[in-house]
Write a structure and sequence with these properties.
- The mean pLDDT is 80.
- It is built from 5 helices and no strands.
- By secondary structure, the chain is mainly α.
- It starts with 25 loop residues before the first helix and ends with a helix.
- Helix 1 packs antiparallel against helix 4.
Amino acid sequence: MPVIGPGYDDPEYDDYDPAWKTQDTPFRRWLHDALTAGGCPFAHVMAVASAPANRYNGLSELEMDDLAMLAGVTVEEVRAAHKVDLAEWAREQQLRDHPDLAVLDADLNRIGGRS
């Protein structure tokens, strides 16, 4: 499976980012809510572990199937939440690449407001 996000030789990629524990993403919110609604006692831990994997490495069919089973949803619902998250992340990357500092500042304020 291709790597989504920083490559393995990129200094930004070190397999761990402390922000992952608190990073608020659409997939993390959706997964936490779905797992909680499905009665999963470790919804927070699963969301913290799965959200970064979703963005940086993608989710395999087996991982999506496992998450769907734990949350009591369909694999298609997991896939849809996965795609929404990646679309937002792509938009964030586009804004960061934009030369207009006002746009970048607005994006950073939006990201900072997630905490």
